[in-house]
């Protein structure tokens, strides 16, 4: 039981940084908060709304995302999309991710 | 737009904790998100689901903090090391000195032992509480100011030089205990002979041995220096030995104590003239100068020993 909890906590730590990468990847097409949450969770990137919505605003503040209100539908929604700077950051994050995957798989194979 | 009161109340509770220029935007997005979530979950029973969704979003204070990127800790990890070091220094070094001074003042005023102990206890609690409160408030304000600017205040960078010296358990502080007792005795005798005027002249009059005029002048640095020496010796008992900081403080206390003492010895101002007349004093000025030199040399040796012990 205790081991399970520890493993769960560590897995959460691992996933934390990947949410940003997933957002930057998905938001090449404009998307609003709740829909993005659904897409992410369907894609297997589990994330909580309490984490995601403030994160989107932080990324917008950092200039990696831009946003626009869409009032065409009955409910006005804030749509986010990746800025040119966000795209550059995504490229370097993807490279970082691939390096990590390569290193970790090598390490786990050697010591497996 | 949802007009549901629970949602409205929740949104209001969150956004009123946010900077004014972001409030409307975040409020609108929160309302939409809550409505979207409710709708997706079970549109058939919106009120029960609304309650569910809001409780999952949690305490509005915490939720607002996520948006504002505001610290949920009074003093965060960047300031904490400096805070705790400063607090320890205030409580273990400054507070005892202040307390000693207050106790001494009570004794000098002739208010008796009870009043002195009372003053000591009161000082420890009131001044101690003030130190903790003021320091904590200052650091909490600094924490928030740093976050608002977006840049964290860099506290002075830690270097290995800041490591406290490991104290070899020097031969259990018998020497330090004796030193403390010796200076405390000097301090107590000085105060006592003034208060109770123990010497009886041939005429049966009670007088003080030391010159009472000193109490409007040179006796004060001497007493403060002595009190400092007592406190420092006690600190050495507790910490099992010297540190360079202790050695510096010790040198200061020695100077405060011994320089005025040597001066009044050399000026032959130390004894009560009535006392000298009564004992038919025939010591020569050279004896006084010699005594002044002896206390100076003894003090210098003590200071040098302190620094050498601290170096080990």
TrEMBL record, chain A:
Residues 25-89 form the Transcription regulator PadR N-terminal domain. Coiled coil: none annotated. Pfam families: PadR. InterPro entries: Metal_resp_DNA-bind_regulator, Tscrpt_reg_PadR_N, WH-like_DNA-bd_sf, WH_DNA-bd_sf. SUPFAM superfamilies: Winged helix' DNA-binding domain (SSF46785). PANTHER family: PADR-FAMILY TRANSCRIPTIONAL REGULATOR, TRANSCRIPTIONAL REGULATOR RV3488. This is PadR family transcriptional regulator. It comes from Streptomyces globisporus. The lineage of its organism: Bacteria, Bacillati, Actinomycetota, Actinomycetes, Kitasatosporales.
UniProtKB/TrEMBL annotation, chain B:
Keywords: Membrane, Transmembrane, Transmembrane helix. This is Uncharacterized protein. The lineage of its organism: Bacteria, Bacillati, Actinomycetota, Actinomycetes, Kitasatosporales. It comes from Streptomyces globisporus. It holds the Pfam family HAAS. The chain crosses the membrane at residues 83-104, 124-142, 172-195, 215-235, 247-267, 287-307. It comes from the Bacteria.
